[in-house]
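Z., the sequence and structure:
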Amino acid sequence: MPATTLHKFITFIGLMSILHTAYSAAQHRSYLRITEQEFIALPIDILIQGIVSLFMVMYGVMYIAGDFKEIRAVVDLENKSWETLRNLPSFQIFSHRGRALSPQYAQ
């Protein structure tokens, strides 16, 4: 499935939301230091925003990255015949200097 503008927008919003979550967490820690309170945990709204943002970014990146390939190499090789596997086009050279040694060669 190709990446659409919607997927790119979701990824962008997710990244901005993650940055906002990090800023909110830093601001919360700063507030606790100023008021001389002990840090126990982040507020639940910051945790939820971070988790939702993470899933938004993961969803968007899955579509932007494109189709996944199988990890096992056997899956790609199952559809090819033996002739296709042994075909090495980089060694198929038809214009070489051997023809200049032929008695029928004329420039």
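The chain has a mean pLDDT of 83. The helical segments are 5-34, 44-65, 74-77, 82-85.

Let me know what you think.
H.
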